[in-house]
């Protein structure tokens, strides 16, 4: 699944804006599982939320991410994931001390990470944690992706269109 590309990194670092730009350019995109789960759980009165039952939230994110991967296999061309399977696995490993079985799912070897960007970071109903927690998460992902055999490409703080251009150039270049 070398056409499956992960955009991950710090919460509030601009991932969703980059995905929107790539979608606008005609690329297939998969929205962040966490935000979808928060929306569903909040509207149904559920408790699988990161601030009330992190384990249930992360397990649900793993299931949803696997479904996203299965659905995306029908896509041709680049498919960009806003976080997903490996982020959920990393979070669950931090929580439980054990990595969940990810099977044989592999993504493009380059993973694009948005660093902490205090000037654009905002909390909202689905992002209740502060920048300090988001930065800790970023550091964990910066460590975990290479440990899983991926090349972490940190995206510079620049306009969204320029970030999208950089990602597309990186994907076309050799490893």
From TrEMBL:
InterPro entries: NadR/Ttd14_AAA_dom, P-loop_NTPase
Domain called NadR/Ttd14 AAA: residue spans: 5-163
Protein name in UniProt: AAA family ATPase
